Every structure is written in C-alpha cells, then in structure tokens.
Amino acid sequence: MEGVAMLYRLMTTVVLGLHALFLAYLVVGGFLAWRWPRTIWLHLAAAAWGVTVVAAELVCPLTYLEHWARRRAGESGVGQGFIDRYVEGVIYPERYAVLAQALVAVLVVASWAGLLRWHRPGWFRAAPPPRPRTRPRWRGSRRPAPGADRPRRRAPGRW
After folding, report:
1. Can you list the pairs that 21-30 forms with residues at least 24 positions away whose Cβ atoms lie under 8 Å?
2. 155 burial class (0-12, 13-18, 19+ CB within 10 angstroms)?
3. Predicted model pTM
4. How far apart are CA 40 and CA 111, in angstroms?
C-alpha cells in the first residue's frame, strides 16, 4: 500500500511541476515566440485559458488532478489552488495579486507587440513602395543553364 501512495505523491510532484511550467510559459511564451514564431498559437491558447480561469474563477484541471492525487496518497486534499498556495505570499504578497495579474498581462501584450514588430516590420509603419520589376536580359538566344552563374567548386582533396 505504501508503494501506491508513493506513486500518487510522485504524480502530485509531476503535476506541480507541470503547473509551474505552464505558468512560466504563460508569462514568457510570447517572448519565446520571437525565436519560434509558430508557437504563438500555443501561447494564445495558454493566455486565453489563463484569462478564462481568472475571469470566471474556474478550477484549473491541473489543480483538480493535484488534489485528487494528494487524496489518493493519503494526504488531505488542499483547498487552495496552485497560485494561492505556491505563488501568492511566496513570490509576491497576497495584497498585490491584482497588480501581479496586471503585470503579467502587460508582459504578454508587450511580447505580442514585439513579435508583430519583429516579424512584420511594415505593420506599425507604412510599407515602402514596391520596386519596379525589370525583365532579365539574356546574352544570346538561350537562357543560361541553372547554376551557370555560380563559381565552380573543386572536388574535395584536389588542389
């Protein structure tokens, strides 16, 4: 029976780690999208979930899973959520919860604005006019072979 309880304690630890990683990604995921722009969709979903949980006062499924695993391990199910228990009062005082949420929101919006600015530079200012297209001029009557304009490389090992 002790082995099963240990597995549930391990599960609780894994869920707590996942919860912490999710919150860290929620805060800095927009900045990660500067490097990997395709991940912005994952960050948009994470941000939407975070806003929904805070606005509607929902219980996060990870919190529910943590409490379930704690009860199975023989511990008392904690009545508080992850943020209430491990973040508030540890990282910032409880009375600054609204300020901390606003700061996270500002960081997320700033990361998205930076992503737009970095990957779509014409979005914030007028795009330069397009350059006129000119037709290529070929010498002779035939088009050159592909790669003919590149210098030839020597075979490896030959001087």
Report:
1. 22/46, 22/62, 23/82, 23/83, 23/87, 26/50, 26/104, 26/108, 27/104, 27/107, 27/108, 28/107, 28/111, 29/111, 30/107, 30/108, 30/110, 30/111, 30/112, 30/114, 30/115
2. exposed
3. 0.66
4. 10
Report d(CA 151, CA 17) in Å as an integer: 55
Query: What pLDDT digit, counting tens, does each position of 84-107 carry?
Result: 777 777 778 888 888 988 998 999
Backbone angles phi, psi at 59, to 5 degrees: -95, 125
| 39, 100, 108, 123, 135 from 114: Cα distances, Å | 14, 21, 10, 11, 38
Closest to 28 measured CA to CA, from 104, 116, 136, 126: 104
